[in-house]
Write a structure and sequence with these properties.
This protein is 17% helix and 33% strand. By secondary structure, it is of the alpha+beta class. The protein has two domains: 96 residues, Immunoglobulin-like; 170 residues, C8orf32 fold, CATH 3.10.620. A five-stranded antiparallel β-sheet has the order 12-11-10-9-13, with helices on one face. Strand 4 and strand 5 form a beta hairpin. Helix 2 crosses helix 5. It is globular and about 60 Å long. The two termini are 28 Å apart. It holds the Pfam family Transglut_core. InterPro entries: Bac_transglu_N, Papain-like_cys_pep_sf, Transglutaminase-like. This is Transglutaminase family protein.
Length: 326
């Protein structure tokens, strides 16, 4: 996959410090980042990398003054497991509060972090009433999540012109229009109004062309969906209300947080004198998995640490060979 961010400035900029959350995550048994390269033009004064509390990889760049453009190109190879949603073994809605209370940890995936409303996703009476009506017949927690997602998909219209990144969930809900960020933030707030822990997830979506049409380069997109905690037995479930589906093989995750601000792809400050124009593109190309060939006669398979290589073959008869060296 390739992700490109480009900014053009009317006048040379001042210095700036930016945080980029654009790198695909590694999630045990679901998603593995096999290889990644980030190119930045022009060269930053400083660069560093850290992991935030919720496990999202963050790239920090200090840019020099005098910029008229800034371009980042991320190239990554990601292995994503196309798991199905499986059987519904989630907690009954009446039992969910007990499961939450029994969770004693405060680790990044603890449901306690995702129950309270935030300044970005406040409590909205109209959204809470809508959530109660949409899930009135739900028995299990996962059933409530799916019913709510289907209702939002049915009642809202995807409209890239109706909202922007600062639009509040209440406004988008009143318009019944918006983009994936609006769908996700409304659903997160609605689930929390039902006392279901919900997180905002940021990532990328691989789009598929209509039957018989060629795949368009750059037609994929940055995307947002919802993660809901459905009880001790099943844990977290990812649902995409924009597309009325569970977030599975076509969804590539970057990270999650309590709202958009904790997963925003770009944060920071840069001194500007004039206007700027920004754009970004995403291109995800699926590659079939290549089966690993069995060892040839006289060779043995040695497991390596996680990475782009599954194994290393060496002559079985060489007792001096070091396991850590090719």
């Amino acid at each position: 996959m390739q992700v490109t961010f480009r900014y053009d400035f009317d006048r040379p900029s001042g210095a700036g410090r930016q945080l980029f959350r654009i790198m695909p995550a590694t999630i045990p048994d679901r998603q593995t980042l096999l290889d990644v390269q980030l190119r930045v033009e022009p060269e930053p004064l400083e660069s560093s990398h850290f992991t935030d509390f919720f496990g999202t990889q963050v790239v920090e760049l200090v840019m020099p003054p005098g910029l008229t453009r800034l371009e980042l190109v991320l190239e990554a190879e990601v292995e994503r497991a196309a798991l199905d949603s499986g059987l519904d073994i989630s907690a009954p809605l009446a039992q969910l509060a007990r499961d939450i209370a029994a969770y004693r940890g405060l680790d990044p995936a603890a449901p306690h972090h995702f129950l309270a409303h935030t300044p970005r996703i406040p409590a909205v009476a109209e959204i809470a009433a809508y959530a109660r009506a949409a899930t009135a017949k739900a028995v299990s927690t996962r059933e409530a999540v799916e019913m709510l997602g289907l209702a939002l998909h049915r009642d809202m219209t995807f409209d890239a012109e109706a909202t922007d990144v600062h639009t509040a969930p209440a406004e988008a809900f009143a318009l019944k229009r918006g983009v994936c960020q609006d769908f996700a933030q409304i659903m997160v707030g609605a689930l929390r109004s039902l006392a279901i822990p919900a997180a905002y997830v940021g990532g990328y979506l691989r789009t598929l062309p209509p039957p018989g049409q060629p795949r368009l380069v750059g037609a994929d997109a940055s995307h947002a969906w919802v993660r809901a905690w459905c009880g001790a037995e099943i844990g977290w479930v990812d649902y995409d209300p924009t597309n009325a589906c569970y977030a599975l093989g076509d969804h590539v995750e970057i990270g999650f947080g309590r709202d958009y601000d904790e997963v925003a792809p770009v944060l920071g400050m840069m001194r500007l004198d004039g206007n700027q124009a920004g754009s970004h593109s995403v291109d995800i190309e699926e590659r079939p998995l290549t089966p690993v060939a069995p060892p040839r006669p006289g060779e043995v398979a040695i497991t390596l640490p996680p990475g782009p290589h599954a194994r290393l073959a060496r002559p079985a008869a060489d007792p001096a060979a070091e396991l850590g060296e090719p």
